[in-house]
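Input set for joint prediction.
Command: fold jointly, output tokens.
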Amino acid sequence: TQLLEQSPQFLSIQEGENLTVYCNSSSVFSSLQWYRQEPGEGPVLLVTVVTGGEVKKLKRLTFQFGDARKDSSLHITAAQPGDTGLYLCAGAPQGGSEKLVFGKGTKLTVNP
Amino acid sequence: GAVVSQHPSWVICKSGTSVKIECRSLDFQATTMFWYRQFPKQSLMLMATSNEGSKATYEQGVEKDKFLINHASLTLSTLTVTSAHPEDSSFYICSAADRGYEQYFGPGTRLTVT
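tokens >
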């Protein structure tokens, strides 16, 4: 069974601080997605990384896929209260499985 | 693009009744749809995978006779919770995927069984 270990589970920071969320696995994924979910809503896709070593930037968010495609990170610069939410990483296993493997999520709170 | 809707957004029902939740992909054809359940402050738990025109594949521990899934078309899948009980109260989320690996999620349905 493939697992994605996501850390930290909870993160509470002040506005303007930087933070990094990690997703690690011993398995290789063909791609990895990052989602953000707000209370009472469904997850919203932020980015998909496919190539080992790939780095994608979305405004203040930087996503990285490890060279071996086993891990990924999400870095937020100068966090804002609007960044508050549950961040989920999800990996697409190699072999063409349609099912995603989800991390347990990181609950981020950015205090004004 | 890639918009998925769910209906209803919330529902309250009495114990013993059945509830149907609809999931629609509005601007793309979904070859596969997924149904998840989410408990408070936790990640998503996959319940089943459904492909249009075929029987759903249920995850281990999910009762297929209790959670009936029908994938009638490439844009519609339904989840029916039969003979609902209070322990079925939860947040149910569907997602839809086209031929790629990305899943697009609906806004979720909050089910409360009294």
